[in-house]
Amino acid sequence: MSPNPPLMAPRALVPLGISLALLLPLAAGARDAPRPLRTLTFDCTVSVADVRETPGDTQASHWIRLARGTTAATSPTGTGVSEDARQIDVKGSITVAVLSATEDDAGLIVEVVENAAERSRAKVEVAIGPDGGLSYRAADGVNLTEEEIAVVRWLARGFYGDHPREPGTAWTVDQSVNGRVDVEHYKVLSRDRDRVTLDYALVEKEAGVTGYDATREGSLVYDTALIVPVKATFQSSSRRLVGPTMSTVRSRVTLTLTADSFGHLRP
Known about the structure:
mainly beta; 13 strands; globular; single chain
């Protein structure tokens, strides 16, 4: 088990909107660029509870490695099942640098990095399709957190597009493929000038040995003029069977845009 598993399965490896081949040649040129086209910073608050239940473990207690440099105790539940539990509560930031934009398919190449205790990882370059489909190198998957993936998807140039802005209207984004369910639901709760407040829900499912079942619910404030998420709050739950162990991860995330090189932030 990776010491830093993603909370929910990332939407990568299936190129959507931008091919992964595009990411490779642009990467070298992007590093030579004197400055990004746009830089965004988000404050983030993350609370994660990870419970792992293993049947048939008769040990009274033992210690396991749950995260980078940390351990937690495990004890039997009285039903022949041992339970390992750990919770973290951290504050930090996510920085997204837009390295390039492609006009033929309205895509973006960005570099994203999170800086928070027990959540910090290496920078990852991600290609974003116009509808929020993501592509990145398979090896970089372990370096993307749930909150980073959410932010990057909402930066897609066609994320909002011609979707309605009137309160009460709703739409669905379905990126299910090859038997994998990946569906997002959005509903407009209110509107103020160029900003809309949305109700947001996500359902992800995948069968098989590496299968999982995940949901996410929350709200999103989005600036349709600047094409950027301004604030988001959501809670999620995911279940995954890893060998004999059932891993259940529940998280609460708050994201707030604090800096944008494109313009002034307004309350």
